[in-house]
Specification:
Helices cover 32% and strands 31% of the residues. It is an alpha/beta fold. It has one domain (7-149): Severin, CATH 3.40.20.10. The strands form two sheets. The protein has a six-stranded mixed beta sheet, with helices on both faces. Strands 4-5 form a two-stranded antiparallel ribbon. The relative contact order is 0.19. InterPro entries: ADF-H, ADF-H/Gelsolin-like_dom_sf, ADF/Cofilin.
Length: 151
Amino acid sequence: MAQSGVSVTPECIQAFNDLKLGKSTKWIIYKISDDWKEIQVEETSTDPDYSKFREKLLNAKSTDKKGNEVMGGRYAVFDVEYDLEGGEGKRSKITFISWVPDDAPQYPRMMYSSSKDALKRALNGLASDIQANDPDDIEHESIVSRVSKGR
């Protein structure tokens, strides 16, 4: 359980294991439930199109303490493929992305920031971890650049 009191559902771990072991799932998006009590799977996909994945993050909504729909954060896992320098072939790294937009309201930002480690601890086998607060942080080139350098 996270410092925030948010727990991780078993479905989160199962979806991650399916991605890690089966390799048919390309990405997973996780969200904190509307009652702010648990992290759950929002969506999984076998589509390798990064632009569709990025759009889902950019359009993520949460509810604030009053129940209003506001811009929200998300956690995601993406199996990032990239070419090695010098034409040495392709590699892939399972990458954890914490998407907490700077212009989201304070409560969702705080809850996503303080609950991240609980999910990361539950997902064994992450190769890379990216904190993203601005749309530029989740541009494909930015993600590949950071992942291929081992950050």
